[in-house]
């Protein structure tokens, strides 16, 4: 199996000391008061698995970047929530709002080669962090002037600009740094591209950006909730967009754009422009602490043979079985989320094996994030939250 990309920007290693950013020290909340989700300490437990399957080469990539950025709570909380959190006026609440650590998980399904998928895996979170910094400053300015920007609209602008920037770099239409030098040249040939399914997770929300036919599914209350819609050429709204741009959707061994790609939203693939676009669809969903079990991000080769219902059931059971067998004891003992957690890893590994057993012959890449708050074991060993 291919080794998933794990990125540590350095901050994650010191991410969770007592009283770290994102909330007060444990035990500091007033007795009888429930801690706000915007103040809760949260460290995701995750696992990622990949295999080239029966293909000659591996063209997928994945990324797990714990605590890749921090944003003010106002990027996700409305004025009313901030008022309730701080008990002060909206302007003062916005200024005093805590910063939420964000954790990024993504899968990239490459085609024509691995260059674009690998580039997205190492670059997307960097561009996103820069875009979030600019957006936080802009939102603060709007609040000072009394203007409001819908949270969903805010994240659409952030992710839209981020995906477009990465696409421009891939195509050589924007400069990128390579070996310390600014270069403006394509990352790969014009027929190489990649889908992108990105999930940003924090204590209060899950934000999903999807571009292509990879999929993000949430297991909530033992029921699957699709947080992304597959981008297929035969989708009614997508067919209309492609035809409006002068393209055609042809049913030739599956629906394809002008007889070529079966995908129509992705990074790279300059030969397919303007029909193939890098514009993601965004969903912002509030977390349900008691009901949310796990999050699954995978490329279409998993979803072609495993339903949302089955995938969620399998992942949930694998995580529970690991904790039951091991009494919740983590072998690393550190509680710092710079490596995968064995329970979530077991779930990702099993999903890949199950897809192979069901006949999936292509590259397969899966990431599972355990969203449950796991209790500490009797021997006080620290486990991922």
TrEMBL record:
Domain of life: Eukaryota
Organism: Panicum virgatum
Catalysed conversion reaction: O-phospho-L-seryl-[protein] + H2O = L-seryl-[protein] + phosphate; O-phospho-L-threonyl-[protein] + H2O = L-threonyl-[protein] + phosphate
Domain spans labelled PPM-type phosphatase: 45-371
Enzyme class: hydrolase
Keywords, ordered alphabetically: Hydrolase, Magnesium, Manganese, Metal-binding, Protein phosphatase
Gene3D superfamilies (UniProt xref): PPM-type phosphatase domain (3.60.40.10)
Cofactor(s) needed by this chain: Mg(2+); Mn(2+)
Chain segments annotated as coiled-coil in the UniProt record: none
Pfam families: PP2C
UniProt protein name: protein-serine/threonine phosphatase
Family: Belongs to the PP2C family.
Any one Gene Ontology molecular-function term assigned to this protein's record: metal ion binding
SMART domains with a match to the protein in the record: PP2Cc
């Amino acid at each position: 199996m291919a080794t998933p990309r794990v990125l540590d920007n350095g901050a994650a290693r010191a991410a969770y000391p007592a009283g770290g950013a994102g909330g007060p020290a444990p035990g500091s909340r007033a007795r009888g008061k429930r801690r706000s989700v915007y103040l809760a300490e949260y460290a995701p437990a995750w696992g990622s698995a990949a295999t080239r399957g029966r293909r000659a080469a591996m063209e997928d990539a994945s990324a797990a970047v714990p605590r890749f950025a921090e944003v003010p709570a106002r990027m996700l909380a409305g004025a009313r929530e901030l008022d309730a959190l701080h008990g002060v006026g909206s302007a003062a609440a916005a200024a005093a709002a805590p910063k939420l650590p964000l954790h990024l998980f993504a899968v990239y399904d490459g085609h024509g080669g691995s260059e674009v998928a690998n580039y997205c895996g190492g670059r997307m979170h960097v561009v996103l962090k820069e875009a979030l910094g600019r957006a936080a400053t802009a939102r603060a300015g709007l609040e000072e002037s009394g203007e409001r920007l819908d949270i969903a609209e805010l994240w659409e602008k952030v992710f839209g600009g981020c995906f477009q920037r990465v696409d421009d770099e891939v195509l050589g239409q924007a400069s990128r740094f390579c070996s310390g030098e600014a270069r403006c040249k394509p990352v790969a040939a014009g027929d190489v591209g990649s889908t992108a399914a990105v999930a940003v997770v924090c204590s209060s929300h899950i934000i999903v950006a999807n571009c292509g036919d990879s999929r993000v599914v949430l297991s909530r209350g033992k029921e699957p909730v699709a947080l992304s819609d597959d981008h297929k050429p035969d989708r009614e709204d997508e067919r209309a967009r492609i035809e409006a741009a002068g393209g055609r959707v042809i049913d030739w061994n599956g629906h394809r754009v002008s007889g070529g790609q079966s995908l129509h939203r992705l990074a790279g693939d300059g030969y397919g422009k303007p029909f193939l676009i890098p514009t993601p669809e965004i969903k912002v969903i509030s977390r349900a602490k008691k009901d949310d079990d796990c999050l699954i991000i995978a490329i279409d080769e998993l979803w072609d043979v495993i339903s949302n219902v089955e995938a969620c059931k399998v992942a949930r059971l694998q995580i529970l079985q690991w904790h039951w067998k091991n009494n919740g004891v983590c072998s690393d003992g550190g509680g710092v989320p710079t490596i995968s957690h064995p329970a979530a890893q077991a779930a990702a590994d099993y999903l890949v094996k199950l897809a192979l057993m069901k006949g999936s012959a292509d590259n397969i890449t899966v990431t599972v994030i355990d969203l449950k708050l796991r209790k500490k074991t009797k021997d006080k060993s620290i486990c991922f939250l």
